[in-house]
Amino acid sequence: MMDLRTDQFLVVTDTTTQQHHPRAPRPASRPGAALCAFPPFTTEQEAPLHPIRLLRCLNDTALPMEVRVAAALVRLYALPLTRIVELTDDHLHHDQGHTYLTVSHHPFVLPPKFARRIDHQLQRSPRRSNTAGRRYLLPGHSPGRPRNPLSLADTLGHHGLPARAARNTAMLDALVDLPPMVIADLLGIRPKTAERWATLAGGNWSE
Questions:
Q1: What are the residues whose beta carbons fall under 8 Å from the beta carbon of 186, sequence distance 6 or more?
Q2: Measuring CA to CA, which residue among 89, 115, 91 is closest to residue 10?
Q3: Quick one: pLDDT band at residue 156, thresholds 50, 70, 90?
Q4: Nearest residue to 166 via CA among 36, 69, 4
Q5: Which string of b and e fits 68-94 if b means at least 16 CB within 10 Å?
Q6: pTM for the full model?
């Protein structure tokens, strides 16, 4: 349904009109909404490091692949870790030379470089890592279970890629271009919360 981070890569398409819109964020579930509590968490410190850390996710081969993929999804789409750990190969599909990651019914067009990272991570996952016979993008230690989001947050922080501040920064970026109601739908947060974030981001959607 929209266009994500035109400055660095991703695009989200509107499957009804096939139009593209500038910069979109990560969808999020209601349980993950707590990760973007108001006011923002250390966005001032994160903002100047955001593009640098994103490039680390894409290019730093010393990082574990699961760390690169998870941290990039946070920074590109503002996806909460609770949603990221639930992603499986069923959310990914290829069509006419493009790779799509569908989250909460919104298909995100992935850039080729990042799509290859996700494909590589899925290939490392057990063939049937959940009860439905799908591969988790981030399988957990217990058979049939995804990675624990709290443990994943600790791992990302250990590698210098904190998730919460990055997600807040990505959401503020998205609210410059997208109205709060769209953000609320994508991220699974309350409309009033999205409006408060939009005010903080400097967006004017009241007219």
A1: 1, 2, 24, 25, 26, 27, 28, 104, 106, 178
A2: 115
A3: very high
A4: 36
A5: bbbbbbbbbbbbbbbbbbbbbbebbee
A6: 0.74
